[in-house]
Amino acid sequence: MHYISTRGNYSPISSAQAIKLGMVPYGGLFCPEFIPQIDIHKLQGMNYQNLAQYILKLYLTDYTDEEIQQAVKQAYNQKNFHSEDITPLHFLTLNTGILELWHGPTAAFKDLALQIMPLFLVLATQKLQLGREIVILVATSGDTGKAALEGFRNVKGTQIIVFYPRKGVSYIQELQMITTEGQNTFSVAVEGNFDDCQNTVKSIFGDLEFQQLLNSKGYELSSANSINWGRLVPQIIYYFWAYLKMVEHKAIVIGDSINFTVPTGNFGNILAGYYAYRMGLPIKTFICASNINNVLTDFINQGIYNKKRQFYQTSSPSMDILISSNLERFLFELTGQNANKVNRWYTELSKEGIFKIDYTTREQLSQFFYGGYATEEETFAEIKEIYNRYNYLIDPHTAVGMNVYRKYAEETGDTTPTVINSTASPYKFNRAVYSALTGNKTTDDEFVLLEKLNQLTSVPIHRGLNELKSKEIRHHREIKIDQARNTILEILKIR
Ligand SMILES: *Cc1c(COP(=O)(O)O)cnc(C)c1O
User: Is 32 close to ligand 1, i.e. is its CB under 6 Å away?
Assistant: First the structure.
């Protein structure tokens, strides 16, 4: 299996090379040159690990069976994921399942990818005989930073350095990062906002002189962001898993179609579902749920992607995004891998901030994609409604998904069994959840809120968050953003 560029500007490469490179150097994303087909009957009875092995093998053909098996074993176990099912499916009703993607170490769905991707990256550097240690640079506004720190923690041959805006993350998010263990993890608080962090990291990736200096000292820069194929491919697994659980639960018989509802930001999660569909998983409709940063809702309904709009901060911050990077891969696959079209659209996006897809592509899109969004009020009301009606606690991202699913079901009358992807533990966003349930906007600190929410609902506190308070603070670096390069050199003991 080779990987090709969505913009037709790179020659086909192996999966190890695609994972090592992250994105196409001159713009564009790597996609598999064809989509492997699966007979779902063959998957029945598999546990999560066997299923993972089966699916990853189809895409990572330059990795040996043993390498994949070892990575799966190391990533998807009950030490990392607090559930035998890894991603358990919780049934709200016979026909509606909530896929809990947050039992990993950092309480959000990014763990599913970031627990295994670092292992593939290290194997890639060995296969390519790079002979240098990998230095991962991350700019984060919260969730990704901690998930990456945990994923790379103590992974041999890697160092990870995370820059986060001192005042731009929640207290729990900061504590999650600064208590990270491991000899190769570094989190750095920056005086400034997220954009400062991101722009600096981007400029370092473009700074060839700085990279040559690192190379000469035996280091190679790399990123772990969500456009890396190594982060996308592990997310395909849980779509098949959820389907098998629906069969096991007798919500469907094998071969029946189901819907998936996905709270969406960068379009990575839902794109993995689309690959599962193209591999042969019977899916009727993808319900793409946004918050009031509803650029995708408009795109699905009008065929126009327009990033020139107001940006809102919401209670579902991981979906506060105006450019959904992975949409590019989706359009490439939707158009039958038409790199010319994708190239044209993305040139327009970067020049004008807007592009419009053609009629045929739009028809194909609307056949099986539904786009909707939830306001802040609707999101809070949804948390309360689901709790009161089902005694089940959801976080604001999941609530956006539930609310849009409800709108879809009312509008269309569709009663097809549906899985809603739940992307974070309610305890991770406890302030919003507590206020949704009680109407009480407290100023209590987030640890007090963990306890209060637990007393109110009796839902157990997520292990990764409960342990935080007693953990030692191990990272003390605080810098001005213009010191980022020096900080990297100091961490790597180059200066
Ligand atoms: C990252 C994230 C999302 C958005 O996922 P995409 O793959 O970017 O669409 C949704 N919810 C939570 C909690 C997240 O951390």
Answer: no
